Amino acid sequence: MPFEKVRPTHARAFVAQLVSAGLAPSTIANIVNTASQVFDQAVVDGFLGKSPFIGVSLPPEGQREEMHFLSPEKVERLATAINERYRVAVYTAAYTGLRSNEQWALKVGRVKLLAGTLDVVEALAHGVVAKIDQHSDRLLLVRAARVAEGDLALGSMSLGTVSRLN
Predict the structure, then answer these.
(1) Rounded Cα distance, 150 and 145, in Å
(2) In angstroms, what is the C-alpha Rg of the chain?
(3) 1-68 domain in CATH 3.90.25.10?
(4) Confidence (pTM)
């Protein structure tokens, strides 16, 4: 369809098609805002008199489901029930607030138990470890607690953002 033939009915049908494709409201808003900017620029440049996206409604943002957290007792039950190989991963997930893609990209050299820190500079993306934007690295301060003889668990944490100057 030629650019100048696009009408508001087409723009609304486009939004409806995105909704029926099952896209999230925020994704639809991003796509529609980009398309709208293209048409707005066409108006500024004199190719169109009015953008077909003016007045087109977007789907409402859905309410996010309330997050539920495990109690320390349930974390302990899960950690003792799971294969011993993954026990530290359970404690790390439960008490640090790391995203799963950040947790699985952690390297031993970035975990400093004596200093009580985890330096989060990488994340797993599509099965590959990728550098996080250097201006948004996160440093987690973690207090370790001894749970049983020989076992070390992460007890509590505070989160800060590290700004890199280099």
Answers:
(1) 11
(2) 24
(3) no
(4) 0.46
